[in-house]
Amino acid sequence: MQLANRMSRLGTETAFEMSALVGKxxxxxxDIITFGIGEPDFDTPKNIKDACIKALNExxxxxxxxxxxxxxxQAIAKAAGEFRKMEFDPEEVIVSSGAKHILYDVVTVxxxxxxEVIYPNPGYPIYESVANFVxxxxxALPLWENKDFSFDVNDLRKIVNKKTKMIILNSxxxxxxxxxxxxxxxxxxxxxxxYNCWIMTDEIYSRILYDGKFISIASLPGMKExxxxxxxxSKTFAMTGWRLGYGIMPKELAVYISKLENNxxxxxxxxxxxxxxEAISGDQTAMDKMQVEYRKRRDLIVxxxxxxxxFSCKSPKGAFYAFPNVTGACKNLGFKDAKxxxxxxxxxxxxxxxxxxxxxxxxxxxxxxxxxxxxxTSTDTIEKGLARIKKxxxxx
Length: 396
Ligand code: PLP
What we know:
The chain is an alpha/beta fold and 396 residues long. The protein has helices spanning 15-27, 46-57, 70-84, 99-110, 126-133, 153-159, 182-194, 251-264, 270-281, 285-306, 327-333, 338-349, 379-394, and strands at 33-34, 93-96, 116-121, 137-142, 164-170, 198-202, 227-232, 245-248, 321-322, 351-352, 354-355, 371-374.
């Protein structure tokens, strides 16, 4: 089939491939525990579902404007503003079918062929994929374990230049759970102002933060006008399948993002948008309980990972991912890399984890091996899964 050239540049979110494999193995009767995809195991809280059902029964079943219904944009502007100690206007908000769609829209609308886009590596694979798809040069900003999986400002200084159109940030981060410090954000902001680039900050895990207060780069001086905040409902409110996300950006840009949404989606599912109003401005008890549970799971999984020979795991500061260094285990077992270790753990222990390379190719000078485990499963399952891993790693 003769596809458009750009298709050869399109990547994929590889975690979905592992989910498909886990599904296949389970259908074959295998007992698989998965720490693969980053999808909360909690069901969407009842108050949110009820608001959606009410809207459906009230016949909220028609098209809406392409940027989302006004009451939802108002609710997002208010809640997102209070959370970040900023002020947003509903006209700066675009509702989309998932945060992922906003990432795609923003890159498509702002980035030209030949522009450069800086993205974190290891990172969420869609950043690199979409930048390449539109014909830009994607440039990796390495994250280092000895910097708590943040970046080295000298690395950033080396790659940012007058062709840099956009710097993509993600804090708390997938896959490492790292959080950018105020100093990191100030360094990035200074370079963004100097080289006049856009910042797209993926803040989808901003409410899953274990220590301190969340800081958005958009709140630093002179940054709001060059920043697109990407956030959504999937992770915080356990609403992955609803496909609801949003972007907050300068009004002049929002007009064009809305135009692209008009061409692709027309609008987001109408009754789902009413559920989202309840999610963001209704009772937050269920969400608070989820955060408490994630912290418990984080502490447990980090402890159990550090108890496996050849594994060492820093305690992630946010999101729901553990990213242990498994270099020792690879060496002890004679594996070339974490991908081989991942295959061994799946085969022998029936446990799915994701090798580091699911989140981009290794950076120059990166010698260590890592895997990612999403702790979006019960403490019992974490204990069982980690006991299985320990057994096959230590008693080979
Ligand atoms: N951004 C990051 C960093 C993610 O990890 C994910 C999902 O895994 C997304 C965006 C996509 O979120 P949504 O479900 O809202 O499209």
